[in-house]
Design brief:
Layout (H helix, E strand, L loop, with lengths): L7 E2 L5 E2 L1 E5 L28 H11 L6 E5 L9 H9 L6 E6 L4 H11 L3 E5 L5 H8 L4 H13 L5 E7 L8 H10 L3 E6 L17 H12 L2 E3 L10 E5 L5 E5 L12 E4 L4 E3 L8 E2 L1 H5 L4 H13 L19 H4 L2
Parallel strand pairs: 3-4, 3-12, 4-5, 5-6, 6-7, 7-8, 8-11
Antiparallel strand pairs: 1-2, 9-10, 10-11, 12-13, 13-14
Helix pairs in contact: 1-2, 2-3, 3-5
């Protein structure tokens, strides 16, 4: 096996097969757990990687074992002509799956084109089914557009749609049962994600975290016992459960209370071309300059390998010495 095709392995032996690609830091809502309400300075368009630059980067890392891609933002659907990027990536040798994380506001009008371009899976962020609460959390209206987007995505053939709900103590508890009833009724996979210190206002506190274990207790009080679901991929962040009657699936992502860093296989590429080996990394590796200086593939591949090799054992949120990233979630890529 030559160096170009050796797996992307860090010092702890974790093999990296998944790449999250942020295509923009812009968003059409302002969720308080992700972005400030105002005063945001978005990146100028010229600083964002072009579709061709993203495609080249993926073409370089695919032989090193990257098989799964996820497009994120900001809100990826505000990036013009996103199906064009999906089409480019779908034809890259070695890429087996392309997924998208979206807030769903623009999904109804783009779902068909994305499906035809080769997108495989969609995750939709949805924290509540109450329109007033939706507006308070996102600081924008639009719940009906999100629900319409989910319906249209199902209509055009997406059969693997996940709902992601952020779990915040004092906020999420009343939403658990309605969201789960909605997911079960529409055959959607609902996952609750613990609130992480990546909000734009820097106001996160550990006592705001609603643990997955507590949510599971609430679910079982209303729906009966949950049973562990088969775990086909040890690196997946969610711990999934099925209901006793096998009527549906629910997942819990515990980055704070039960970190899954030991099985992490993810690498990140930010919208402006910075490689990150961890969501909570305070260091980045600049690949944009290499891409724009007509560098050969080898130095780009070396930069990726060096970044992965430097990956720490874990994010360290529970460590008193933890330093939160200077960037918020929308600037990194969810």
């Amino acid at each position: 096996m030559n160096e170009a095709s050796e797996p992307l392995t860090d010092s702890l032996g974790r093999v990296h097969t998944s790449l999250r690609i942020s295509v923009t830091d812009r968003c059409n809502i302002r969720c308080y757990y992700c972005m400030p309400a105002d005063g945001i300075q978005f990146l100028p368009r010229k600083q964002l990687l072009s579709f061709e630059e993203i495609e080249r980067f993926v073409r370089i890392v695919a032989p090193m074992g990257i098989t799964k891609l996820r497009l994120t933002g900001g809100e990826p659907l505000v990036r013009c002509e996103l199906p064009t990027l999906v089409r480019l990536l779908a034809r890259t040798p070695g890429i087996e799956e392309i997924a998208l994380t979206t807030n769903g506001l623009l999904l109804a009008e783009q779902a068909g084109d994305l499906r035809r371009a080769g997108l495989d899976r969609i995750n939709v962020s949805l924290d509540t089914l109450d329109a007033d609460k939706f507006k308070r959390i996102t600081r924008r209206p639009g719940l009906e557009k999100v629900l319409a987007g989910i319906a249209e995505a199902q209509r055009v053939g997406f059969d693997s749609i996940r709902l992601n709900a952020i779990a915040i103590r004092g906020e999420t508890e009343p939403e658990i049962v309605p969201l789960l009833e909605f997911a079960l009724a529409h055959q959607l996979h609902l996952r609750f994600i613990e609130y992480m210190p990546l909000d734009g206002d820097g106001a996160w506190k550990s006592d705001q975290v609603l643990s997955g274990e507590r949510i599971r207790e609430i679910v079982e009080e209303h729906f009966g016992p949950l049973e562990p679901a088969p775990r086909d991929d040890a690196s997946q962040p969610a711990v999934d459960y099925v209901f006793g009657d096998r009527s549906g699936l629910i997942g819990f992502i515990h980055p704070v209370s039960q970190p899954f860093c030991g099985q992490c296989d993810r690498l990140r590429l930010t919208a402006e071309g910075q490689i990150r080996n961890c969501l909570f990394s305070i260091e980045e590796s600049d690949v944009r300059d290499l891409l724009r200086s007509n560098a050969d593939d080898d130095p780009i591949a070396k930069l990726v390998r060096d970044c992965v090799a430097a990956k720490k054992p874990g994010h360290g949120i529970d460590d008193p010495r933890f330093l939160r990233p200077a960037k918020a979630m929308y600037q990194i890529g969810g």
